[in-house]
Structure prediction request, 124 residues.
Amino acid sequence: MTSWSETITPARTSSLCWETRRVYPAQVRIRLLLDNHSAHISKETQNWLNLHPLRFEFVFTPKHGSWLNIVETMFSKMARSMLRGIRVASKQELIDRIHQYFEEINSDPVIFRWKYKMDEIGIG
Prediction:
């Protein structure tokens, strides 16, 4: 897959979809769960998606529903427990602190068991 980027753009979203489609067999429909970031709902992204209507389905979390996005929840917890009130001297120090946070929480993981299957959830 592609390398990580600090910015999310429509081109980046399309690129990620393009690379994702190479990983899965051609007959598999790829369902992506996305937040409502402007790059995900942009005209450019929608145009790209319309060119591949049978291959991809974008499913969006509700607007103002960041609590449904597990990544948003994780970053919120990190901000409240580790980043609140700190001052860092550099971007690298912030990155190092974030890595340290993940090392600490991963040393004693809590297993999350998702209770629903995508095919059982009403979408639309």
About this structure: The longest strand covers residues 30-34. Residues 68-106 form one domain. The chain has two domains: 10-60, 68-106. The beta strands are 30-34, 56-60.
